[in-house]
Design goal:
This protein is an alpha/beta fold. It has helices at about 20-30, 35-45, 60-65, 80-90, 155-160, 175-185; strands at about 1-5, 10-15, 50-55, 70-75, 95-100, 100-105, 110-115, 120-125, 145-150, 165-170, 195. Helix 3 (about 60-65) links the parallel strand 3 (about 50-55) and strand 4. Helix 5 runs parallel beside helix 6.
Amino acid sequence: MRLIENIYGNTKMYVDEEDIRANWIENRLGTQPEKVSLLKNICLKESICNFYDLGANYGEFSTSLCANVDNVFAFEPNPSVFNCLQKTSVEFYNNIHPFQKAVDILTSEKDFYFNSRYSGGGRLERWQWQDQRYKQFNESKYYHSTKVSCIRFADFFREHNKNQSCLIKIDIEGLELKIVEDLMFELETLDKWFIYFEAND
């Protein structure tokens, strides 16, 4: 585990130094500058209270936005990545609340599949990293699975949001639309909410 600083100019986070994606974050001082800037501007302009980071990874979004909201709820099921996210939160950001859970539309326990050299693709089904630049890490020895607790995000949201304005970022490798659909009833009661999600085939 290694601490890197000055991500997007003013944040810091711990990362797994064996992870290719962690190296990208360190070398570029952040891999998502346009997206982070967009969401930060929404938080500032709209006076957002709560930010939900579904698929937080090391916390690029969580650490960058936490100064602009009251609370950040960050979900990351990958065990080694979560350890870094939790250490970052405890040491530097007292309003980031990390959860080592996968979000779903049902509460259950499932297998979470991940590649130990690339933290960006973990999901609740078997997969293979397609980046040919790093095909040496596509051997079976780099792929692992672990049991994770899955929560129904709509239930968590109802319990924690308390009718406050919110921004929800969802990047969970294919379950994004199901989460949004399951959440719609909860959002109907709010005056102000925003959802940003990554669409995958």
